[in-house]
């Protein structure tokens, strides 16, 4: 069997290095790499169980498994172990789509393009690695490898307060990763696992007592939660987003936040089911807090980008809620939501970026009636906003519907909290559209032009994804539900 | 005894001694050009390094080994002055790598620089002392070997003889060093009074029956103080920053990357007995070993010292404005991580600490070489003077960035692997030691602040309009400026090599780590 995952990793790595070295032609190298990556991900999808042509797997519960010895000491067994299941596969698809869209969108980047595109590819490489890694050290390596390129993207290409934002981002997420690492190490050594492999840890963790599970789960929850970000550890996010260049914002919201959700599912929920059960009240409280607070904060924003950033906190709160339910339906909802939020927030951040390029400001009250001048851009903003507020036939709808259904199954009438907040979300997006897109023309400079082709194409890809997966969510659902999640009560 | 059979195992030491004497001889004959004596020093340390690697039985070189395999990790003898352990050999390798890097970098200093033969001769002489430390099996032998290193390094700091800052640093170094030596010897004499021997193996044997009466505790207490000065542990660290700052950067690289580790290895040798004793009786935790009397006090003391050293070093590093002082404080905090290894005292922990010490040569030693090079380019000593270095010297900046990231423990670097092994060993030991790991991890998070600040300054801040001239005045402790153009080949090779190794070993640590692990296992089992 072909070591497909290693081939993808090698492609990305080679592409990244080539991009760094290819000077002014960097965007072509980056595009070629991204398209190759997308094609390989398509192959991964086609080969996945349930799809024709699948040939079997080496690691139980995972497809395309590969495992090679890496560091073998008498007391430390670390392997290069990778594999995918339905959950990671969907997020890998998200990575590939966002990478292609970001590279095309950023086509006009004039400041050190080779470094910029190289760092973009490196971020995606790290995310892909996180999604396929099935060994604790490998997972942690990729996890941290995402930090460094993002730090540079924000710090070098960002807005006026970029240095502060980059440092804050780095420190917050790094501290969280350290807590996560201690949690993962403790998981290995307290459970007496024979190796750092996911399957070994997973099996050994069954023997841990409830109290230990609860403590370990909390440590991991904190580690992954800061990436989500959960309130009250969310303050790095608006700063990072507002200062980051558009491409970095897209990756930050679309991919980096998903790392937290994926990590929580893979390394905490699956491995420590009774820990989840004990800590459930804390998770619910944090989730509700994030949902409500994120949405309240979005309401008060004037800056379009800040508005999208705060609404991310709200959306990721729903993801956390869905995960915390501990049911298969909740898990399905969480993964769908992450995919949907990745695509839609990417689209919205690109919109905010284009608004800024075109009008020189993102201040909503100072803009008005931009649609006649920039019809394409306005259409994109509209699709993004409508998707974000959960219009049926767009990608977020099936995800949010599943989430609400799962919440009702698990928590009964508590479902009214996210439901009410969804109405608020709808309100602030509609209000934003009303003020900015329609009405009398305001704050539009005379030389304002509609989208350059590359920004249009980049956003177009995400619009297409929003619609295709909105109409055919089964493409994703079939893959997600085919992955066995252990330790879960039935739907 | 057959003289050849006696001397052959000491071939690396003999090579170093020969090179040292040759350099001093050339000095007398007025052959003082930096290239000539420097190349001699590079060759001497390279050959010694090859011999040590051969003695460690690394595959392609194993046939060159001069040390019979049977003598490595042999059963201890209560009368021996010296003994060969594989951990000691690993440390010899580490020390020689530090010397090799420093002398390689120093070859590219101006060829008519005053005192070049003295510099290289003393460098090799100090290294000789360090090699002898690693084979010590007797307390007095150990302390004398440390003295050989110390005296050479006091002189090394002042080798330029002109610069008042270096002279002041050397004076301070000498006075503190003399005090610490006195404390160590006093401690050793108390131990001799308690056990009737200065042989470390005999002490290990006696520690069981005798236990830890007050005399022994006092003896170890003085030894801790004495050795802690050498290893720059808080609260015995105050001298280090002034000395590191005042000494020429290349000497600082050697002090931080090499000679300071002598103190740490001495910790390994001296405290193996009490720590292992605690572990075997008390089950590995100061809070469970009720029956071992005062034994757990050692672990607690060393643990507290480790946490103090990490924290104080890091916090003070945060406040520094000068690059060298910042790196000096960070060097102090790194010693705290290494001390965790000996506190935990299991084979994995000692392996982790050893890897950390190995890594530190490439991270901190090489970082000081960069600082020396940067100063020679006419850039000032403040962190802010490094503004825009990323665009002006991209390769050098990337190498420096790798060293700093490695010091911060960012993955894909050797510094990450060493901390990973060290902290997982502490977590594995469970109980009290998990908190040491947590303290260590929190500290590495804290350290990210000041390393990231340097990255920010180098890569994000715009370069000053004109090159800072301030360095030429304030950084007067540096040897004369290089001819404009570059770092010189030797320094570039040393820095590049370190940067490459930081990544290479970070990606695939198995060969190095495997050897270190075996050595640590032998080391721990030999004492049990």
Describe the protein's architecture and organization.
Chain A is mostly helical and 491 residues long. Chain A has one domain (4-481). Chain A has 18 helices and 2 strands. A two-stranded antiparallel sheet of chain A has the order 1-2. Chain A is globular and about 70 Å long. With 528 residues, chain B is mainly α. Chain B has one domain (3-527). Chain B has 21 helices and no strands. In chain B, helix 3 runs antiparallel to helix 4, helix 4 packs across helix 21 and helix 9 (214-230) runs antiparallel to helix 11 (249-282). The chains are: A mainly alpha (491), B mainly alpha (528). The A-B interface holds A 70-76, 137, 140-141, 144-145, 147-148, 151-152, 155-156, 162-163, 166-167, 170-171, 174-175, 178-179, 181-182, 185-186, 188-190 and B 347-348, 351, 405, 410-412, 416, 420-421, 423-425, 427-428, 430, 434, 437-438, 441-442, 444-445, 448-449, 452-453, 456, 459-460, 508-510, 513-514, 517, 521.
Helix and strand content put the structural class of chain B at: mainly alpha
Q: Whole-number average pLDDT of chain B?
A: 85
Indicate the low-confidence ranges of chain A by residue numbers: 51-57, 486-491
Number of helices of chain A: 18
Q: Report the structural category of chain A.
A: mainly alpha
Number of helices of chain B: 21
Fraction of residues in H or I helices of chain B: over 70%
Q: What fraction strand of chain A?
A: under 5%
Order of helices and strands of chain B: HHHHHHHHHHHHHHHHHHHHH
Q: What is the C-alpha radius of gyration of chain B, as a whole number of Å?
A: 22 Å
- CA distance, first residue to last residue of chain B: 31 Å
Instruction: Describe the sheet with the most strands of chain B.
Output: none
Let me know the number of strands of chain A. 2
Total domains of chain A: 1
Bulk shape of chain A: globular
From the structure provided, what is the oligomeric state, counting identical versus distinct chains? heterodimer
Q: How many distinct beta strands of chain B?
A: 0
């Amino acid at each position: 069997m072909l070591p497909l995952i290693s081939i993808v990793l090698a492609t990305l790595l080679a592409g990244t290095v080539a991009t760094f070295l290819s000077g002014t032609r960097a965007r072509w190298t980056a595009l070629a790499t991204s398209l190759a990556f997308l094609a390989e991900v398509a192959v991964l999808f086609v080969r996945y169980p349930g799809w024709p042509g699948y040939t079997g797997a080496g690691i139980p519960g995972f497809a395309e498994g590969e495992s090679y010895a890496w560091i073998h000491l008498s007391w430390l067994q670390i392997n290069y172990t990778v594999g995918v299941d339905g959950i990671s596969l969907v997020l890998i698809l998200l990575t590939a789509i966002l990478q292609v869209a970001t590279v095309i969108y950023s086509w006009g980047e004039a400041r050190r393009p080779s470094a910029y595109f190289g760092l973009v590819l490196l971020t995606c490489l790290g995310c892909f690695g996180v999604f396929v890694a099935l060994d604790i050290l490998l997972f942690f390596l990729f996890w941290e490898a995402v930090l460094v390129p993002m730090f540079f993207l924000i710090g070098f290409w960002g807005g006026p307060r970029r240095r502060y934002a980059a440092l804050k981002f780095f420190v917050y997420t790094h501290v969280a990763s350290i807590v996560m690492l201690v949690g993962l190490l403790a998981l290995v050594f307290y459970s007496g696992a024979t190796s750092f492999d996911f399957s070994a840890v997973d099996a050994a963790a069954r023997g841990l007592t409830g109290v230990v599970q609860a403590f370990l789960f909390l440590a991991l929850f904190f580690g992954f939660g800061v990436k989500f970000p959960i309130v009250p550890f969310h303050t790095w996010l608006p700063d990072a987003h507002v200062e980051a260049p558009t491409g970095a914002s897209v990756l930050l919201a679309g991919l980096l936040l998903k790392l937290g959700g994926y990590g929580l599912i893979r390394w905490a929920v699956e491995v420590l089911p009774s820990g989840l059960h004990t800590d459930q009240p804390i998770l619910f409280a944090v989730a509700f807090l994030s949902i409500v607070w994120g949405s309240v904060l979005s309401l008060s924003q004037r800056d379009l980008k800040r508005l999208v950033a705060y609404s991310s906190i709200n959306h990721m709160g729903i993801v956390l809620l869905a995960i915390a339910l501990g049911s298969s339906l909740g898990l399905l909802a969480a993964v769908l939501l992450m995919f949907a939020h990745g695509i839609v927030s990417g689209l919205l951040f690109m919109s905010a970026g284009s608004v800024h390029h075109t009008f020189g400001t993102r201040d909503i009250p100072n803009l008005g009636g931009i649609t006649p001048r920039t019809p394409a851009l306005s259409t994109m903003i509209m699709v993004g906003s409508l998707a974000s507020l959960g219009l049926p036939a767009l990608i977020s709808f099936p995800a949010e519907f599943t989430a609400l259904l799962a919440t009702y199954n698990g928590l009964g009438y508590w479902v009214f909290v996210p439901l009410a907040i969804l109405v608020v979300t709808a309100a602030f997006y509609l209000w934003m559209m009303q003020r900015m897109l329609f009405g009398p023309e305001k704050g539009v400079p005379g030389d304002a032009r509609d989208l350059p082709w590359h920004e249009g194409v980049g956003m177009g890809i995400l619009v297409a994804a929003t619609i295709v997966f909105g109409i055919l969510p089964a493409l994703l659902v079939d893959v997600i539900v085919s992955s066995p999640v252990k330790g879960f009560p039935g739907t | 005894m057959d003289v050849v059979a006696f001397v052959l195992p000491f071939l690396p030491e003999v090579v170093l001694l020969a090179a040292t004497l040759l350099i001093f001889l050339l000095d007398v004959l007025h052959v003082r050009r930096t290239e000539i004596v420097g190349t001699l020093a590079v060759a001497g340390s390279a050959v010694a390094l090859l011999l040590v690697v051969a003695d460690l039985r690394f595959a392609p070189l194993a046939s060159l080994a001069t040390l019979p395999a049977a003598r490595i990790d042999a059963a201890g003898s209560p009368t021996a002055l010296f003994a060969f352990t594989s951990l000691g050999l690993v440390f010899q390798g580490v020390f020689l790598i530090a010397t090799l890097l420093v002398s390689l970098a120093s070859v590219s200093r101006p060829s008519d620089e005053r005192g070049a033969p003295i510099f290289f001769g003393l460098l090799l002489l100090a290294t000789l002392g360090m090699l002898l430390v690693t084979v010590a099996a007797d307390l007095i032998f150990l302390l004398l070997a440390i003295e050989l290193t110390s005296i050479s390094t006091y002189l090394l700091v002042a080798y330029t003889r002109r610069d008042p800052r270096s002279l002041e640093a050397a004076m301070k170094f000498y006075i503190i060093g003399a005090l610490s030596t006195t404390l160590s010897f006093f401690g050793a004499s108390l131990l001799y009074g308690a056990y009737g021997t200065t042989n470390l193996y005999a002490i290990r044997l006696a520690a069981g029956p005798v236990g830890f009466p007050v005399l022994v505790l006092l003896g170890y207490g003085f030894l801790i103080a004495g050795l802690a000065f050498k290893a720059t542990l808080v609260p015995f660290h105050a001298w280090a920053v002034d000395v590191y700052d005042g000494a020429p950067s290349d000497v600082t690289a050697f002090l931080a990357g090499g000679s300071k580790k002598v103190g740490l290895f001495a910790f390994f040798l001296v405290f193996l007995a009490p720590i292992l004793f605690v572990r075997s009786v008390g089950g590995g935790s100061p809070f469970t070993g009720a029956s071992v009397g005062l034994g757990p006090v050692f672990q607690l003391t060393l643990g507290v010292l480790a946490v103090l050293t990490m924290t104080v070093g890091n916090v003070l590093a945060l406040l520094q404005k000068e690059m060298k002082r910042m790196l000096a404080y960070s060097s102090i905090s790194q010693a705290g991580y290494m001390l965790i290894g000996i506190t935990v005292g299991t084979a994995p922990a000692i392996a982790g600490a050893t890897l950390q010490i190995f890594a530190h040569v490439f991270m901190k030693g090489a970082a000081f070489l960069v600082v020396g090079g940067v100063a020679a380019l006419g850039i000032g000593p403040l962190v802010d003077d490094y503004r825009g270095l990323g665009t002006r010297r991209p390769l050098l900046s990337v190498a420096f960035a790798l060293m700093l990231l490695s010091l911060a423990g960012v993955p894909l670097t050797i510094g990450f692997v060493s901390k990973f092994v060290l902290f997982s060993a502490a977590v594995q030991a469970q109980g009290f030691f998990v908190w040491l790991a947590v303290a260590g991890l929190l500290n590495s998070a804290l350290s990210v602040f000041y390393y990231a600040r340097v990255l920010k300054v180098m890569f994000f801040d715009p370069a000053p309009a004109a090159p800072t001239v301030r360095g030429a005045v304030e950084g007067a402790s540096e040897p004369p400026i290089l001819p404009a153009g570059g770092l010189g080949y030797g320094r570039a090779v040393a820095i590049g090599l370190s940067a490459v190794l930081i990544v290479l070993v970070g990606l695939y640590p198995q060969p190095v780590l495997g050897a270190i692990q075996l050595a640590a296992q032998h080391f721990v089992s030999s004492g049990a």
